[in-house]
Amino acid sequence: MQRVDIAIIGAGATGLMVASHLENKNALLIDTNQDIGAKIAISGGGKCNITNQKLSPKYYLGDLNFVKQILSKYNNHTLISWLKSQGLNPILQKESQYFCPKSANEILNIFRKNIHHIPKQLNTKVLSVDKKNNRFVIDTNRGQIEAKKIVVASGGLSFAKLGATDIGYKIAQKFGHKVNRVRPALVGWTLQKEQFFFKELSGISTFVKLSTANKELEGNILFAHKGISGPVILNASLYHTKGYITINFLPNFKLHSIRNSQKQLSTLLPLPKRVTKALLLSKNIPDKPIKKYDTTKWQEINNLFYSYFMAPAGTFGYSKAEVTASGIDTSEIDPKTLQSRLCKGLYFGGEVLDITGELGGYNLQWAFSCGYTIAKGLNSV
Ligand SMILES: Cc1cc2nc3c(=O)[nH]c(=O)nc-3n(C[C@H](O)[C@H](O)[C@H](O)COP(=O)(O)OP(=O)(O)OC[C@H]3O[C@@H](n4cnc5c(N)ncnc54)[C@H](O)[C@@H]3O)c2cc1C
């Protein structure tokens, strides 16, 4: 049996950050994939959206005080400084998002360089973990590994084809941790039959405001073959669990300013014409010269475009979801080190925890901040 001081389960964003910051430790990095950082490699459309200039706990779902404590130890500035010291200058795009200049491989190469001295056991799937005589015994498809401490950095359930498994939740439960009900997030929605007409708008994207579960979001909605997607929907899927959402299709337009126009409604609305026509048709409202609508119809038109009411049918599922929302409850984890309060030597970090960020680099930043916190904790003992 192989024996190490620290076994890191998962060579994704969290595990790589831990491994990169460990000082003189006898550690082993384990992953089911044949290479490190499979998700990083495809993240951000292949350019890895590393972090966000607007980093703040308010872009996360979970215990925001816990988020604050982790981000205060390692934030977007410390991350960028570290990357710069390693020769990578992230570039700012889409207002506030930092990406690798050329490809995600640039950040992966930094990790490769920093962890070259750490033994890796790739193509190795962790099946279970037990604790015997104060040592963790890790059962894998390639034999057992004994470790004094383990770092669970095994991520969530989305994108199983990139190695995702539920092992992190199983380990947490085994050692008495509560795991809150997980669900796919940052994912598109399927439609109820009342909105099936959206499918005919497939490929069209337009800027909207959306309200759900006490959250006001804005961004583009993308009508897709399977349902609706686009940044505003992906972010809404993080907060929305059930019930109705409201979409404002004309967030920056005052309908009353055109009330007396002789022109057709669809020619004056700042929306793709096909969207206007499809919405009107769905409520049997004719597209006609605006002045000719009576007061009742005009009110219906206002409701239709400013507060379109709908309930999503479901999501596109884990195979399309960028993240898994919810996870291991953070109340039993020490935010100073990310060590379990229930089992000494057991650490958790990254997406496996019940903390999830919006689109825009918040999830990788979370994983990197967790990884740094864990490494610091391990270095101090
Ligand atoms: C398509 C896509 C694009 C994304 N783009 C971005 C982006 O641009 N910016 C952003 O902030 N976030 C992005 N995300 C989300 C982000 O990648 C994750 O939140 C982040 O990688 C989580 O880091 P982690 O270390 O917790 O888990 P992961 O990076 O998922 O790493 C977990 C590792 O554990 C391994 N593992 C799992 N189970 C086992 C097991 N039983 N045995 C051994 N190994 C195991 C996995 O193979 C994996 O390598 C994207 C996600 C997807 C799916």
List the main descriptive attributes of the protein structure presented here:
381 residues; alpha+beta; FAD/NAD(P)-binding domain; seven-stranded mixed beta sheet; 28% helix; elongated
Can you put this structure into words, describing what you see?
The protein is of the alpha+beta class and about 375 residues long. The chain folds into two domains: about 240 residues, FAD/NAD(P)-binding domain, CATH 3.50.50.60; about 130 residues, Beta Barrel (Elongation Factor Tu (Ef-tu), domain 3), CATH 2.40.30.10. Helix content is about 30%, strand content about 25%. The chain is built from eleven helices and 23 strands. Strand 20 and strand 21 form a beta hairpin. Helix 1 packs parallel to helix 11 and helix 3 packs across helix 11. Bound molecules: flavin-adenine dinucleotide (FAD).
